[in-house]
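Weekend entry, working from home. Most of the wet-lab plans are on hold until the incubator is repaired, so I used the time to fold the two sequences that have been sitting in the queue since the last round of cloning. Logging both here for the record. First:
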Amino acid sequence: MKELEVLGEGANFTAVSAGSFDELGGFELPMGGGATVKGKVFTGAALKSTGMEMSLQTMAPGQESPFVHAHKKHEELYMVIKGEGEFKVDDKVFPIAEGSLVRIAPAGKRSLRNTGKDNLVVMCIQYMADSFGPDDTPAGDGIIY
């Protein structure tokens, strides 16, 4: 089974590599009870993240999410890096392709399917809903370099 490679660490950063997106199929995510999701890796622990979780996933043509899921407190942001497919959120199904971004509120029941001829590569960032407020600045904290 493939593992994330640590590229560097310091007091204010951690850098890891999952390798080529074409090699994501080497990862396996244990789901308990002996079940695994092939081609998926979570990166939060390796990155020592304190405010989000992130996963990378590849799905072969015709492959779909093994289950529909929702969250209690976390939004998810999906970014399609490569390929095409369908996303289902609640009762709505819509097409996605390279460059698509999909934000899903915690209660949204979600699943994903590869409808294309090539692998579908997706990055998913999970974070606490309603955690970004008017006092936060997208450009930083006024620090000029």
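Second, folded right after the first finished:
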Amino acid sequence: MPITANNPNRKSWLEVASESDFPIQNIPFGVFLTKENVVTVGTRIGDFAIDLGALQQLDYFNGIELTDDMFMQDTLNDFISDGKKTWRLVRNRIADIFDAENPELRDNAKHKKVIIFNMKDVEMQLPVLIGDYTDFYSSKEHATNVGKMFRDPENALLPNWLHIPVGYHGRSSTIIPSGIPIHRPMGQTLPNGETTPVFGPSRLVDFELETAFITTDVNIMGENIPVNEAEDYIFGMVLLNDWSARDIQKWEYIPLGPFLAKNFASSISPWIVTMDALEPFKTKSPKQEPTPLPYLQQKGKHTFDINLEVAIQPENSLPTIVSQSNFKYLYWTMSQQLAHHTSNGCRVNSGDMMGSGTISGPTEDSFGSMLELTWGGKNPIKLKDGSERKFINDFDTVIMKGYCKNSQVRIGFGEVSSKLLPPFVR
């Protein structure tokens, strides 16, 4: 089935700024709360939120097999469970409805009033009920940098890293949408030169520049998914700030790896950009040496050219861009990650989220964390207001953005923005 929604020549009758992340060729999916306190599944074109529940009730999806309440829910899980054919049919239909040449809704003022909202009048929610969250560690540059700092610079990558997409099981209960502030975590740390740990606020709170993909129902327990089929089970992508407490992490990560240093908060952008929308931006991933085992081998283009940036904004000041990276730098692809995840028969469900791991590039200004950008705090970053940062200060807001762009169209993710507050006090 063709992806007619991607037609680069298509224009919308809704006004869309030239540099908008959300032209009619994007059509992401999310969940929002209206002024009337109604939660609905929606999409976005320009600065307009579109109520898909209202569209369905008014019969604009006639001819597409959908349950009666598909878009009148507070998560996208059921829609995602319907699979790739339904996603494409719905997205193509939305593009047709909002095409500049289609008068059906364009000229119906009564319908427009209940379907279309200004973005400033809605409140974005978490788009899916995330049952399970896995975070990978798939940037060779990031893994090498961390290995140099924490272990032996001569053997920065552990022996298994070039053979498997390393990952760990995260905590879904603390995944939050953009705009929700977080608190500096408390935890155990081992002060320099000491042999006994102390308990208190983390002093080294960090961001991690990541993306994440959302799955549909992938398999039954015991079944593995071939790498060449894995992409069919990926609904779309979001931006992810996987907050980290480096001092807590340093003390606890041996022998079992990430725990409380990572699970206190993970922030995601609220709009899920579909893999169909990203299709024009497919590109080749880095050469993999040694050649992966057969179940992970793939040929062709399986990653995406997504420009990424991170800014830090102190309270009452302007933001300063501190990192500019790209999704295509990742060594392991999403399909390899999902194939490996199911290779032992692990079940993956609709709404599960898989983090990419920190996305660092080859240059110092493309590193995806403060740990790397300041090299463990040795080289502070100067912000526009004259202040310096080794890690994230209380009341700083971390803003991540991402977009793809070619000569015909720009497809973006919006942003994930979160403020760091002091430790929670009962």
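Plan for Monday: verify the second prediction. The first strand starts at residue 30 and ends at 33.
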